[in-house]
Amino acid sequence: MRNCLSLLAAGVFLLQPYSFANAQAPNALERAIENTEPCRSLKTKVSSFGISVVVGVDTLDSVKIENLQLSVNGNTAEASARGTLACKTSDEALVEGGFSATAEVRLKIDLATCKTTETSIEIVKTGGRFGDVVKGLETEISGALRRSLEKNVAKLCEK
Questions:
Q1: What is the SS3 assignment for 41?
Q2: What confidence tens digit (pLDDT) does each residue in 12-28 have?
Q3: Hey, CA dihedral for 125, 129, 132, 134, is it positive or negative?
């Protein structure tokens, strides 16, 4: 349980694997989020006039945790956080750009079973060249983030 609690703070925004080279974060929590490689999977294939091109906003630009609150009552841990993630295209992209998304995350975990009992992820603000795309896919992105968060919290509890 102690290990689960100590890693819970790092796991609040855990997303999906990704590698990045140039992003710098000022604190340990933001570095932990960077290490999850959250932008890596943000690629899609775009077809036009019979030509298909993979487009990816898959390079981490920055991560900033604005606030994080943790509380434990018996075997129930609750966490809420607000933070901003910014991703951009690689330097080799045909069309360069990026997006930022500010999200509010809330989750509740049963520490006896290491199961996430409640999860809420809301994208409250978007920006950047591709910010409108993110806003338009908010439901899909929030669902993917929720599933990834729950999966990664479960992994933290296994250790």
A1: coil
A2: 333 333 333 344 446 88
A3: negative
* Size of the chain in residues: 159
Dihedral, 82, 83, 84, 90 alpha carbons, nearest 10? -140
Q: How far is CA 95 from the centre of its chain?
A: 24
How large is the angle between the packed helices 2-11 and 28-35, nearest 10 degrees?
80
**DSSP E strand boundaries for the chain:** 43-48, 51-56, 59-73, 76-88, 98-110, 115-127
**Residues 16, 38: Cα–Cα separation, whole Å:** 5
**Calpha distance 44→58 (Å, rounded):** 10
Report the C-alpha gap between 15 and 4 in whole angstroms.
17
Is this structure's pTM higher than 0.85? no
Contact by Cβ (8 Å): 107, 153: yes
